[in-house]
Amino acid sequence: MSDSIGFIGLGNIGRPIARRLLQYGDALRVYDVSTTACDELAALGALTVSPAEMAARCHYIGLCVRDDTDVESLLYGADGLLACGQAGGIIAIHSTVTQAALLRWHRDAVAVGITLIDAPISGGASGAAAGTLTYMVGCDDAAVLARCTPIWNTSAATIVHAGSVGAGIALKLANNLMTYAAFAAIHEASALADAMGLSIDKLIEVGSANGVVTPQMQAFIRNRSQLAASGGQAALRQHFGPFGALGQKDLNAALACAEALHLKLPATSALAPRISAIFEGRNE
């Protein structure tokens, strides 16, 4: 089996993860729809290849793409990772996707002798660059986990083995639900404070002292306020809008899991269609 590792998805978080994978020692093969992103990694020593060539040459492939549709387009078809992959190879899904799709991909991979596991991440681009990400892993095989851990350690400070396949994405969706609910809380609390003549600084001071406002919440509201002050609504829509769209995708994935389990999440159901407005600082 090849000693090469592969990584697909050189976006905001994937690019710094791939940079750190260059430290691992094995040859690194990368792919992204952006040739600019590929060229940047190639300049650092990575090899740019097609997904089909990556599947044929790599014993391990990490995927860090946007959603279910992107993952499916890479896995399936005559040139897909499942058709071209090495028997005994590992595919780790870092994307925030639906659990039902993840479990289906796992079954289809097993049928062709490939191990597909979930290893979503938390910590953002800054955490990827600093090597302080948290990996949430769903994996049934201790030997597979042992093979992957040194690879993930290039960008991780914490690796949590959540349980069997599907448990990692379940943990990520629950974690993201809390994150977006916290953003909604500070968004509305700051709007109320402002309308009543209070500064956001006072709200953060009290909330930080009593543990209600986390550093992540504080960074969110301060960064959003600074961008609004310098660029107005257009800047918020441009820079925060894409994160709002990701938030809606993630919350909808959590709701899909809840529906399959016949579980009601009324607050999340109310939040999902509003998360884009929250990121863009709109009260509607």
Keywords:
14 helices, 2 domains, globular, 284 residues, alpha/beta, six-stranded parallel sheet, three-stranded mixed sheet, N-(1-d-carboxylethyl)-l-norvaline Dehydrogenase, domain 2, Rossmann fold
Please indicate the count of domains: 2
Find the structural class using helix and strand composition.
Answer: alpha/beta
The residue fraction in helices comes out at: 55-70%
Q: Give the neighbour order of strands across the main sheet.
A: 3-2-1-4-5-6
Distance between the termini: 55 Å
Q: Mind telling me the CATH class of the largest domain?
A: Alpha Beta
CATH topology call of the largest domain: Rossmann fold
User: Which second-level CATH architecture of the largest domain applies?
Assistant: 3-Layer(aba) Sandwich
Regarding quaternary structure, how should these chains be classified?
single chain
Would you report the number of β strands?
A: 9
Strand percentage = 5-15%
Secondary-structure element order, as H and E? EHEHEHEHHEHEEHEHEHHHHHH
As a whole number of angstroms, the C-alpha radius of gyration is: 20 Å
Query: What's the average pLDDT?
Result: 96
Count of DSSP H/I helices: 14
